[in-house]
Design brief:
about 475 residues, alpha/beta, Rossmann fold, GMP Synthetase, Chain A, domain 3, 9-stranded mixed β-sheet, globular, ANL_N_sf, CoF synthetase
């Protein structure tokens, strides 16, 4: 299988990524504006949809904030008018992504294609050419901060040939992570011998057995999946000792990070990416998330799509992908809650610091005191269960305005003790939040459901009637 790869483009981008990393915030801003003008110019010439949406008189020099916000459902509904290559047609691509036998196969011999999981309510299909993939490759290779290797390990294996990497995810769909892993193994045959993919959707016992046999030195997966493996290590079923855990795709809470690091004995390195732009942010050695602002623009906004001040959490964030001219994303409503900080990091990077709260999940509207309604936020509920009750693998489902149902995988005395802690913490938190007396029903021996992409579904609001 051929791979979408341009060595010359990768070399040029890599040199620029390295230079920008050693430069100044002003240098980052200059690169950003130059690339934005090029993107707008190409989009004006090639995308019928954007030409119809943008104000008359829009030029490559038009300020970004003067352009309208777009959504996934809006773009997907007009896919053939959105893309700048008329050979890209939605119906054909949808049929392509429906066939698992064609995962990571280049489309038209020059495009990588992946689908989103649809966690934001509308699945998407995303197309990247070799130029965009070169940007993603360079950012991943040069800005991910690896933990220092032990001296003896560096002496005996300076090229890292003894590393064994396990990717754990949904491996039977055209998802960005799965496509990327297969593509990298096609480009670098030596990686195929040291990299193995494991389905997160298989029975837990089978996954643990397979990982014990492979003994990976590095694991790439979702935070909730890593926490599940940490639970298995804590109870003595998982015997691996990886050196590092790479997480992404979900919110990584501080308590969950500590749990993973403690039980698996590994450094945890978190990243921030999306189907719309693979390498949005990377975590430096000081534990701060940095935005790759030379190649992506993030605009934190409130619920009315107005800019929020630095340091304040957003309701959503608008993304502009400066690398992809084939399928332009300009002021795209990503749906994540983030905070951009004004202060520079102590690591010296010129790139801005970002705090990621994750996807804006649906809140639980409960019956409050005095007949009023009260809202419980999913992120707060997750924090209560993780930090206070010490439980990381769970499903909390709202039954009605006064009742929650908690599913835990544990059984026996361990399960009953965990359930008692969770119920006590949830009820105390509900009272503190102004919710009336709630009931929490528990079910033990229940695994956490996961969507098609392998992401966990931990907090579920009741259906609206």
């Amino acid at each position: 299988m051929s791979a979408v790869f341009d060595a010359l483009r990768l070399s040029a981008v890599s040199l620029d990524v390295s230079a920008a990393q050693r430069g100044t915030p002003q240098g980052i801003a200059q690169r950003q504006q130059t690339r934005l003008a090029a993107l707008l110019n190409f989009t004006l010439r090639g995308s019928r949809l954007y030409r119809s949406l943008w104000p008359a008189g829009t030029t490559p020099g038009t300020a970004l904030e003067q352009l309208p916000v777009v959504t996934r459902s809006q773009l997907m509904a007009h896919f053939d008018d959105w893309v700048t290559d008329p050979q890209l047609q939605f119906d054909a691509l949808r049929a392509f992504t429906a066939d698992p036998a064609r995962i990571a196969e280049p489309w038209l011999d020059r495009y990588m294609v992946w689908e989103s999981s649809g966690t934001s309510g509308q699945p998407g299909i995303f197309v990247q050419d070799a130029q965009a993939m070169a940007v993603y490759d360079a950012l991943e290779a040069l800005r991910r901060s690896p933990p220092p290797k032990p001296l003896i390990s560096s002496m005996w294996d300076p090229l890292g040939l003894g590393e064994r990497t396990a990717f754990i995810g949904a491996i039977d769909g055209h998802f960005a992570s799965t496509v990327s892993v297969r593509r990298l193994c096609a480009i670098n045959p030596w990686l195929a011998h040291s990299t193995r993919s494991f389905s997160l959707l298989q029975p837990l016992g089978a996954l643990v057995q397979a990982l014990n046999a492979f003994a990976p030195t590095a694991i790439a997966t979702y935070p909730t999946a890593a926490a599940l493996l940490a639970d298995e290590a804590a109870r003595g079923a998982l015997h691996i000792r990886p050196r590092e855990i790479w997480t992404g795709g979900e919110y990584l809470a501080p308590a969950m990070r500590a749990h993973i690091a403690r039980q698996l004995g590994a450094a945890v390195r978190n990243s921030y990416g999306a189907s719309e732009f693979l390498a949005i942010g990377w975590e430096c050695a000081h534990g701060q998330m940095h935005v790759n602002a030379d190649w992506v623009i993030l605009e934190p906004v409130d619920e009315h799509l107005r800019p929020v001040p630095a340091g304040q959490p957003s309701s959503s964030v608008l993304l502009t992908n400066l690398a992809n001219h084939v399928q332009p994303l300009v002021r795209y409503d990503l749906g994540d809650q983030v905070s951009l900080l004004a202060e520079r990091c102590r690591c010296g990077s010129p790139l801005p610091v970002l705090q990621v709260q994750g996807r804006h999940d649906e809140p639980l509207v409960m019956c409050g005191q005095g007949g009023r309604r009260a809202t419980l936020l999913p992120l707060a509920l997750s924090t209560v269960l993780e930090d206070n009750a010490g439980v990381f693998d769970f499903t909390l489902r709202q039954i009605d305005a006064c009742t929650l149902e908690l599913h835990l995988p544990q059984e026996g005395d361990e399960g009953h003790q965990a359930l008692a802690r969770c119920c006590a913490e949830l009820q105390a938190f509900a009272i503190a939040m102004g919710v009336g007396a709630i009931q929490v029903h528990g079910k033990l021996g229940q695994s956490t459901p996961r969507g098609r992409s392998g992401k966990s579904c931990r907090i579920v609001a009741c259906a609206k009637t």
